[in-house]
Amino acid sequence: GVTSSQPYEEFLQCLEFHDSNITSIVYTRANSSFSSLLESSIRNPRFDTSATPKPLLIFTPRQISHIQSAIRCSRAHRIQIRVRSGGHDYEGLSYSTISPSLTFLVLDLRNLRAIQVDVPSKTAWAQAGATLGELYYAIAAESRTLAFPAGMWPTVGLGGHISGGGYGSLLRKHGIAADNVVDAQVVDVEGRILDRASMGEDLFWAIRGGGGNTFGIVVAWKLSLVSVPPTVTLFTVSRTAQHKQNATEIVHRWQYVVDKLSNDVFFMVVLNRVVNPIQANATTIQASFNSLYLGSIEGLILMMEAKFPDLGLRRENCVEMSWAKSILYFAGFPLNSPLESLLDRTISATGSAKFKGKSDYVKEPIPISGFEGIWEKLKEVGVQTGGLILASYGGKMSEIPESSIPFPHRAGNIYQVEEVAFWVEDGVEAADGYLNWLRGLYEYMTPYVSKNPREAYANYRDLDIGRRARSWGSSYYKNNFDRLVRVKTAVDPANFFRNEQSIPPLSSWR
Ligand code: FDA
């Protein structure tokens, strides 16, 4: 337990032995900055309570040798490492644990965030502690026609995001972030610094989507950048299920076209319960269609008129901007926001709201009656406290083989679903109410989503989907799970890098 100061003092002595200047990057609980540092990248307030298990200390390396020392000393003194890049882990596992008695430290990579963009070779080296916003900003500073196909929220960290896949508005054209990694720098359990050539193709395969905190500490990724037009088109169109706006029919129809549209279109639909725009004291179900098109407004309107006239897209719904600015658009920033907003690490997606997410994959269109049942579920929670986010698949995603990298959700998926609940109330009782509602929605979705296994997205970590590795392992990785276990067994047989949902080596097989 944490009550004994022993492991921690010996750990500090060990660190100092390796590097006498190291104390300036170690924050113990006695340090006045400990709490603010810990909280600075807790992105889910659900894991920021007095009851949340806290690390023994936070370690903020400034150079790779600091990481090597941390690994050596943690192993010697049996302290578990939780590595944190952007802190967006849905279950808070990069800075906390479900085991109250666990002694662990947080290795926080916030200071390792250098980014070097090389326009001629269309590549970039980016350190794992950089955020997506910092990456997109650095690319935009060099070129308006280069981009990287990763997530849509600026503060997400490159370390965790690419370790678990990483999708965004370019996935139908270019696949996910992990598909576009060409090299990496990793520190392994022996403290060795490895690149693609020295780690070998098995480990290089595993780190591109096989989950963070498992195979080693990723210090940097070499990314293959993609070309985008100088201006892209965005639109948001919302329809309710009332007043002849036909949300139900339009969402139903959307499923038949979305995965077959040109790869230049990405479509997201948010389904939730909102205040009725026409009758202020009532609520209604709303479907918000959010889209990016790699081309001009004219091109998009023509395509939508031909393929998806049901939506009734009009010119005034559309706006053109650079690809980098489209990230701010998706994140809900005002249209005239400066590109520098991408660099703001303090923005929060949910404010003070706690959240829980779950994920699914849809392979057959859900019938109208299925959506009507979803509306009933949404009416069981408050306005905007629960919803579903649908993200279009198809295109490039269907061309990449399932075993290309550990992320397996490829051909056959029309779209991905995220089921989510938000709440601001404190306390276990309120949380249980929302969690039970979300689990009920997930249960309701069973007949409409993938089966055997019921697939889930590793980056939307969900500790509900089974304590046994085989169970969450097949949901996240399908048939790639066995190869991940083999790689883990080869590179970290004693299971030093671990959390509640990391790939186990064969020796610790449960
Ligand atoms: P965090 O630091 O919490 O790390 C997540 C996991 O990876 C932990 O297990 C951690 O220990 C491990 N890890 C972190 N750094 C590592 C490193 N350098 N080496 C090895 N392991 C490391 N996803 C998506 O695909 N598209 C999207 O648009 C979004 N948007 C989004 C918005 C918001 C508000 C949230 C909260 C989350 C998302 N996500 C997402 C999900 C996101 O991709 C997922 O939570 C990532 O794991 C987050 O990576 P971070 O580095 O921020 O998290």
UniProtKB/TrEMBL annotation:
Per the UniProt record, which residue ranges are transmembrane?
none
Q: Which GO terms label this protein's molecular function in UniProt? A: FAD binding; oxidoreductase activity
Q: Which InterPro entries match?
A: BBE (IPR012951), FAD-bd_PCMH (IPR016166), FAD-bd_PCMH-like_sf (IPR036318), FAD-bd_PCMH_sub1 (IPR016167), FAD-bd_PCMH_sub2 (IPR016169), Oxid_FAD_bind_N (IPR006094)
| PROSITE patterns xrefs | FAD_PCMH (PS51387)
Is the keyword Zinc-finger assigned to this protein?
no
The source's superkingdom equals Eukaryota
Cofactor(s), names only, from the UniProt record: FAD
User: What keyword terms does UniProt attach to this protein?
Assistant: FAD, Flavoprotein, Glycoprotein, Signal
Q: Which residues form the FAD-binding PCMH-type domain?
A: 51-228
Q: Does the keyword Glycoprotein apply?
A: yes
Q: Would you identify the family this protein belongs to, as annotated?
A: Belongs to the oxygen-dependent FAD-linked oxidoreductase family.
- PANTHER family from the UniProt entry: OS08G0158400 PROTEIN (PTHR32448)
Its recorded name reads FAD-binding PCMH-type domain-containing protein
Task: Please name the taxonomic classification of the source.
Answer: Eukaryota, Viridiplantae, Streptophyta, Embryophyta, Tracheophyta
